[in-house]
Specification:
With 200 residues, the protein is of the alpha+beta class. It folds into 2 domains: 3-56, Orthogonal Bundle (Arc Repressor Mutant, subunit A), CATH 1.10.10; 63-199, no CATH class. Helix content is 38%, strand content 17%. It has 8 helices and 9 strands. The chain has helices at residues 3-11, 20-27, 31-43, 66-71, 80-86, 141-150, 172-180, 185-199, and strands at 17-19, 48-51, 54-56, 76-78, 97-101, 106-109, 114-119, 128-130, 137-139. A 4-stranded mixed beta sheet has the order 4-5-7-6. A 3-stranded antiparallel beta sheet has the order 1-3-2.
């Protein structure tokens, strides 16, 4: 199969992201052959290689959709500095998409964006909105702030420093209720202390 023909057929698919196995089945060819075709199309910038076996069509994918595909089948939602920016709590634009996940802490570097996923306790996995159209899950302003404070003592030090926060965008009562749901009492105390310090 010629590359130009393969690209035409792929572009006719009503998807933005697909797996090598999907294309192998679609073209009725072996997976190894499909992988070679996709790799060549990627090298010529007609496709984007997201991770092993996962590809995207340029200009069809919102970077905020990336976590859903990269971390599937485990759930995740956009949080920390990324959600704080989109919820107008901080002005500083993050260069990385930060995500809360039940999976291990991991970083994905893709042609579209870098996604940094951070593991949180299953009992603390809540507090996000869901967009039916885009399938994007994003923490509320309050949960994004507490997620950030929750991991501010992590060894990585990524969330140790927090840009200036616009407290007018935060519901203080909702935020304190979220803090009370932190599974560890010690962590609750530490987060509450850091939260109160932000308000001074």
């Amino acid at each position: 199969m010629k590359l130009i023909e393969a690209l035409k057929l792929i572009n006719e698919l009503e998807v933005s992201v697909f797996r090598t196995d999907d294309i192998a089945a679609y073209f009725n060819i072996k997976t190894a052959h499909a992988s070679k075709i996709l790799t060549r199309l990627s090298k010529s910038n007609h496709l984007l290689h997201l991770k092993k076996g996962l590809w995207a069509i340029p200009d069809r994918l919102d970077p905020l959709e990336l976590p859903n595909y990269l971390l599937s089948p485990l759930p995740s939602y956009i949080s920390f500095h990324s959600a704080l920016y989109y919820r107008n709590v901080i002005d500083q634009i993050p260069s990385i998409i930060y995500v809360a996940t039940l999976y291990k802490t991991i970083k994905f570097i893709t042609p579209i964006a870098t996604v940094s996923a951070h593991q949180i306790h299953p009992d603390f996995f809540f507090g996000y909105t869901y967009d039916e159209k885009t399938k994007i899950k994003m923490a509320t302003a309050e949960k994004a702030l507490i997620d950030t404070l929750y991991l501010s003592s992590a060894k990585s030090g990524i969330f140790k420093a927090l840009p200036e926060v616009d407290s007018d965008e935060i519901d203080l009562e909702k935020t304190r209720k979220i803090i009370k749901k932190i599974p560890s009492k010690l962590r609750q105390t530490l987060v509450l202390k850091r939260f109160n310090a932000l308000l001074k």
